[in-house]
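Appendix B, Record 12. Input sequence as logged:
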Amino acid sequence: MYLDERGYLVLKTIVNNPSITGKEVEQSLDLSRKQVSYTMDKINQYLADNGLPKIERLRTGKFVIPVPVLEQYQTEDIGIKDSTYVYSDKERGALIFLILLCAREELSIYHFTSKLDISKNTFLIDVKKLEERLAPYGLGIHYSRQDGYHLAGSEFCKREAMIPIVRQILNMPNGQEAILEISQVDPELMEQVRGQISEIENKLKIRFTDERLRELPYILCLVLIRIKKGRILEDLPESFQHIAGTKEYSVMVEFAKEHDVAWQTEKIFFAAQIQISNYHRFQSDNLRSEVEIMEAARQVIDNFEKIICVNIKERDILLEALFQHVKPAFYRVKYHYHIEQSIVDMVLPRYSSLHAMVKRSMKPLEELAGSEFPDEELVYITALFGAWLQREGILDIENQKKRAVIVCANGVSVSNFLFFTLRELFPEIEFLTCLSMRDFTEYKEEFELVFTMVRLETDKLQFLVKPFLDEASKHKFREKVLSEINGIMPHEVDVTEIVRAVEQHAVIKDRDALVREINRVLNPVNVQGTAERTAEMKEQPMLADVLTKETVQISEEPMEWEDAVRAASAPLLARGDIEQRYVERMVQIIREDKPYIMIADGVIIAHAGVEDGAGRICISLLKLPERIDINGYLNADIVIVLGTPDATNHLGVLFQLNEILEDPSALKKLKQAKQPEEILTIVQKEKEKSLC
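Logged structural output:
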């Protein structure tokens, strides 16, 4: 009995998360109830064939997993061998590509059907799907009786497609063995290349991520095999030409020399593979190209601060973290390398407004790269900024808490995202740092817990971290961790059932408010606990909620800029939204620092810091009859005052305000308004558009 890809994923999901329900399996793997039921029958057949007890399913939707099954399969990788794992069509397509790439003779259908243990029809269907995947690279699969099956297209395009396909195969069960078997890489060559990569790290003062360290030897060995067969790069895209002269190029010239590679195009290609690599640590030598990227990254932070109206503390540390991610990302964008695996689904549901702000901040880097950053790249920068904003608002953690480290095989952005997501989810735990797998083996500090994306050989209590799909997944993971740490399963009452019971005997005026209050009473994790944070996240106000008739003013007389700021602040002061010191701080900032606070033609937004006396998220608008001088460096006829006690919860308000101001028609109507109601109508239309 064989397990197909679906059966493998369902079994892996259940044994690694024993408290999961059938409904959650359906949602996490995008399966129907019927598909899960059918797959469970197949899994139980497979278990029975291997002498193991079956997995039972309760009426509640939960699973009863026998201990022998857990002991056998509860690992990061179930370890299904070739004899029990059936590749999916996408996985077979990747292997077909590799066979074509490494061909040493004419390939007939028999070569593929025997190697992959599939039928002729399955192979032909797989080839058609693979051709669709290769089309964006400018590649095709051709067949003739004389030459058999072969890849058609330029050598550069073949290598461009090879890199993500190698990464995909390495993530498959027995992927390393598959590559070695198909490519027939000399083990001595592989060892030599691994040693050279270690030398490259030392020479360039970098530390590759675990993921990149795993795949880079295979990529370089496959390229060397192509070169030995005479498959030489005849030319490269123009964007690659500046690589000659960089420090990566100098190091890879030595690498090429050791392998008797004399072609300039190949040396440049080798250097590009280093430039696009993600690092855990990087020490800059301030070469010209790096100085340019560093300066562009600095400008991105400047833009970001202006757009979100928050001054970031520890800017230099943030700049270094941003540069570590941006440098390889910059070259991936510049050279048009594809990113097939991303954390878009992890980040965007939580940081959608922040993502839009980051996107608007990226112009300096995009101009330097000559291309826009796609969401697949940009989302890592959003994660970094999101984690940084959380960091600046989180209190110090008490010493008596259990100490944990996080082990992440990815780069700095994913590490930061995981660090601050977990620290928010578990206020009971002190998270010390993020480590690569190599750094973990050398880490000397005392700790009790490990949160890791891959299973480790350690005697410490470890928890496998999966991408959180939704709040329910976070809740289950939190429940599992706390139960293992404390030895008991935390009991949390179903608030929905309580509200239903109340509804039978009373009239509820505000159901959402009641749910939040019951949650607060029953689940007091702490003042920053998960229950409250989840409610707060859903409570982010919209522009129409905070900009009201009382906070919109239209003046018929011009005034001095200080008077204008004070006049715009008056409604917020009167309501107690801000304190007088907040107003004075705004005036002081404009007078002394002259920050660029113009967010549209003739529109400025004045604000102070989150600790300067704003009690809640609030906004006011003052429209003047003509433009006035703002301390000798700006001119404006609309003055907006923003107050926020939080570094992130006002982002939705700012996002909608920017949407209005970037619309020329809406901005014109705003400036022509004679009554506050006309301005509020524009804002209301934006709210309705956001809800669509």
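DSSP finds 30 helices and 15 strands in the chain.
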